[in-house]
Design a protein that fits this description.
16% strand, 33% helix, alpha/beta, Rossmann fold, 12 helices, 7-stranded mixed β-sheet
Length: 374
Amino acid sequence: MIIGILKEIKAEENRVAMTPGGVDALVRQGHILLVQTGAGVGSGFEDDEYRGAGAALVADPAEIYARSEMVMHVKEIMPPEYAFLRPGQIVFTYLHLAADEAQTRALLASGCVAIAYETIQTDDHRLPLLQPMSEVAGRMAVQEGAKYLEMAEGGRGVLLGGVPGVEPARVLIIGGGIVGTNAAKMACGLGADVTLVDANLDRLRYLSDVMPANCKLIMSNPLTIRELLRHADLVIGAVLIPGAKAPKLITREMLGVMKRGSVLVDVAIDQGGCFETSHATKHSDPVYVVDGVIHYCVGNMPGAVARTSTLALTNATLPYAATLADKGWVRAVREDEALARGLNVCNGVLTYLPVGEALGLPSKPWEEVVPRVE
């Protein structure tokens, strides 16, 4: 299969969809890799490394789209790329369609086969291609939140871990999945007073066995969240419904009970955000203030640590990319239920039902759309 690795064009996105090591592995399996010139520079991978791994370097993204049977990105397909898509072409990347109607309609109109990293899901409900970036984002959420608590950044002037004789910052984490767990580990490690809330009692039971003693675990409900907000210095929103819009768990009115100079970090912003006052920001202008509360809502947080993120992402995506390339998308989807759950758009049909519900668009189960393999 001819596979195209494209340079990211989203603002301030430095990751790349494949390392030279990943390219080498696919070339050894007999596939042809086209890598856009400069695609890996932001992650510290030079063109010569890709060339040495067996890739052909191509300067024009339109040529890569035209020649490739499968194209790989990190972030979503951007408007300048819509016209390059064609029927039957595999698009393999993070899509986050529930919060992006324009991209969804463009993918449908193109007739391509769009497989989203973030909705590939195993039978035990793991999201293996979202997990590495969730790990990065969870840890970064604490790092960024701690910075914006500093007075020079407009914060309350609170040191996350405190010092002897002075209490540490109070950190509230909403959601106990991969993002929330990694955020809690990071905040606990820095000595903060951490409270994690989740609506899944079994998850809380598990976390009670593995989290450090300075992490309190509480069942989530609106009244509890409101009360915890009164005392929080840093709040991290880490709630995910796979492929669907994030629920709004903190309303504008609830900001009124928070301390001035406290910080909200919305890690769910790619899925629309879990705070009513959230809107996406960029690394170059990451925060804004609403009712005295600092909001950090960068949509591609792992892009700030691009080398770590690219290595972690390729570790997760490479086996699935190899399966698609070796078997073709029809057989790969039919033989791998996890991969089938990643299929969002197929030949002009929306095949991920939560996206259809979020955007009010018609959709069909993938089983009704994907041809059967004899």
